Amino acid sequence: MSSPAIEVEHLVKTFGDHRAVDDVSFTVPQGTVLGLLGPNGAGKTTTVRMLTTLTRPTSGTARVAGHDVVREPDRVRRSMGLTGQAATVDELLTGRENLRLIGALYGLSSSYVKRASEDLLERFSLTDAADRIVKTYSGGMRRRLDLAVSLVATPPVLFLDEPTTGLDPRSRVELWEVLRTLVKDGTTLLLTTQYLEEADQLADRIVVIDRGTIIAEGTALELKDRSGRASLVLTVSHAHDLPAAEALLRTRVSEVHVDEAARQLTSPAEGLRDMTRIAAVFEDSQIELDDLGLKRPSLDDVFLHLTGHRAEDTTERDSSDTTEEQAS
Q: Which region is the signal sequence (predicted)?
C-alpha cells in the first residue's frame, strides 16, 4: 500500500501565549481531496503554512510526499504546489510569460516549460488570453492562471488555501471542475475553505477545525449524519389542503412541523424507504403535492451542531493567521 501524500501528527503552532494550531493530526491518501473546513481565524492558513515550509512548527511532525517539513524542506517544496488566498502572478507579464518564468525559476528545461505552458493554458481555458498582460484578466482568469503556475513542475501534492475567495459563483464552479480533473489525473489536494458547499462538492474527507483544534473528521455524509436525522419535506399545491395533509401525515409519523407560508410539512425520516411509504399514502389521497423529498442536514448544520455557531457567524480573523499572511 502506498504511503499517504500528507501525514500530520500532533502539530502545534504558538505565537506567544496563543496556540493558533493545537495538536492537529490527520492523513491524506494519495489522489484524494481533504477539505480543511473552518471559519476565518480557525487556524487553517497557519496549518497550511507549516505544511508548505513557510512557518516552522512549534512541535509535532508533518510529512509531505514522504518528506519531513522541518528536516527536508527543499524536498517538500519540490514535491508540492501552493495556491494562496490571493493570486500571486505578475500582473505586468502575460499569462504565457508567467508560466515560463516559474518554469525557469524551478530550473526546468526551456523545451519542457514551453510544452507544459501550452498544455496548462489549454487545460485552464486560457489559450486565447495567453498573450494578454495579466492585469487585464478577470478575477476568475487570474485564479486559474495562479493554479496553472503552481502546476508547472507537476507536483504530486497541491495545497489550495481558500482558492475561490472573491470569485463569482460561475467562476467558482468552473474552478471546481478544474480541480476535479486534477484529482482524476492523480494529484492530491489539501483544500482549506470556509465555504461549506465547496467542501461538500470537492472533498473526499473533511476535517473541521475551530480555534486551532480539530473537532470532527469524516466524509461529508458521515458528518451530516452526526448532526441529526434526515427530514422528509412535503409541499402541498394548495394552502387549503395543508390541514388535511398534516392530519394524513400524522397517521404515519409522530412528529410534524408545519410551515404555513411555504405550504410545507417536515418530519424526521430514516431514508428513502420512508419517503416511498409516505408517497404511496398521498398517492391514494385527493391532496395535490408540488414536491416530496428527503433533505439531509447541510454542512452548515454540522458546524452549528459541533460548535454552537454557524461558520459565517465567525468573521473576526485570528491574529496569528493575519500576522502570518502579512509576513508572506
A: none
Distance of CA 27 to the CA centre of its chain: 16
For residue 194, what pLDDT band results from cuts at 50, 70 and 90?
Answer: confident
- For the stretch 97-117, pLDDT in tens is 999 999 998 889 999 999 999
On whether the CB atoms of residues 225 and 218 are closer than 8 A, the answer is no
Distances from the Cα of 192 to the Cα of 4, 91, 170, 206, 209, angstroms:
18, 25, 20, 10, 10
Gyration radius (Cα) of the chain, Å:
24
6-79+155-225+303-327: what fold? Rossmann fold (3.40.50)
Grid coordinates given for 186: 492523480
Its sign, for the CA torsion 179, 183, 187, 191, is positive
CATH for 229-296 is 3.30.70.100
Are 263 and 248 within 8 A, CB to CB?
no
**Alpha-carbon span 286 to 244, nearest angstrom:** 10
Q: What share of the chain is helix, strand, coil (3-state, %, to 5)?
A: 40, 25, 35
pLDDT tens sequence across 195-247 = 778 888 999 999 999 889 999 999 988 887 776 667 889 999 999 999 999 99
Closest by alpha carbon to 320, among 7, 53, 70, 47? 47
3-state secondary structure of 326: helix
Give the C-alpha separation, 40 to 314, whole Å: 7
Cell of 172: 467558482
pTM of the prediction? 0.75
Boundaries of CATH 3.30.70.100 in the chain? Answer: 229-296
